[in-house]
Amino acid sequence: MGTEVQADMNNGPVQETQTSGDIGGAPVIDLTGIEGPSRERIMREVSAACEEWGFFQVVNHGVDLAVMKRAKDASKEFFASPDEEKLKFAMKKNVHFHGYFNPDLMDKDVSKFSSTYEHLYYVFYPPLQEHKDRWPTIPEGFGPAMYEYVVESRGLVERILGLLSESLGVESHALFNGLKGPDVTQSNMNISFYNAKKEGEGEDQIALLGHTDPGAVTVVYSDEVVGLQVQKGDRWLDIEPTPNSLIVNLGDQLQIMSNGRFISGNHRVVEKSSKRRLSIINFYSPNMDAIIGPLDGLLSESNPPVYKSTPYRVYLDTFRQRARAQLLDTISSFKVLSLSDQEPSSESTIGTASTSSTIGESTSSTGMR
Ligand SMILES: [Fe+2]
């Protein structure tokens, strides 16, 4: 599985990068007709991508392109604002690391896992007043524009969850119901503005170390600048954004709920373009009190649970603790141990992190891509 593969986790020059011939390193899937006669075909393609890659791009995804553009324009305008304006929203340690972070202007300890790029991190769903009060107000209308996009992209995630449930042979709301637990799922937004590759710098530099996302499904709205890479075996492949597409990857909770049939794709970010890269990321995550484990309908004597059932809150706490210690592969801590697994094993690390990066949802500001 993707999370069990360790390769090239250190920051620093990239050793080898290859691009597949398949418009970047993951399938591109056309969702036209998802509620009609094409549903079966789309379900097979999405399911295969989740089993093989944990990553895919979607086109004709049903997310309003005008809404996407408004979110992108607002994000660009925020990052183009004067530093003193942006710093009014600076991340603080005592508010769960929500806010704006810029390593050139701020104490790196604020983010704990200091990043090499500036970004914003906020909860956008559910839109509680305590969340709204923190949303940036530059440019005017930033919050509503981003919220509108969040609602649209959450709809996409929920359509994909329906497809994946059906492909698993369980009721079409099974994954969604499992994720929402006693209340609602959550969307944390990380809007990242990566640095350009420096002039004269020969090697591409890793901006964000290889990791899997701890949540359920991540939707990445990237501009045209290449930088996100997905791991396939021992290779890192570029994801080349197709115009108007969205990139989707599964997080650890979907690997757990599918009892290992789907994989949480390992990915990283490199600085390889002369342009800065904007990435608007919706981390669609379980309710903190949802008990996440393999779906009951999947289990049998011949398919026993591979993972334990755990409140998402506990999983996320473990993820954060391990990330602080620069340990990767949280999901392995939640495996049901067989006798052969109980041998002493060495921990995988994220590397020496000579330049540390943010690793994962809500570790700091966290985030990714
Ligand atoms: Fe990520």
From TrEMBL:
Residues 181-286 form the Fe2OG dioxygenase domain. Keywords: Iron, Metal-binding, Oxidoreductase. One of its GO terms (molecular function) is metal ion binding. Residues 345-369 have a biased composition (Low complexity). InterPro entries: DIOX_N, IPNS-like_FE2OG_OXY, IPNS-like_sf, Iron_ascorbate_oxido_reductase, Oxoglu/Fe-dep_dioxygenase_dom. Residues 8-21 have a biased composition (Polar residues). Residues 1-27, 344-369 are annotated as: Disordered. It holds the Pfam family DIOX_N. The keyword Translocase does not apply. PANTHER family: 2-OXOGLUTARATE (2OG) AND FE(II)-DEPENDENT OXYGENASE SUPERFAMILY PROTEIN-RELATED. Belongs to the iron/ascorbate-dependent oxidoreductase family. This is Fe2OG dioxygenase domain-containing protein. It comes from Marchantia polymorpha (Common liverwort). The lineage of its organism: Eukaryota, Viridiplantae, Streptophyta, Embryophyta, Marchantiophyta.
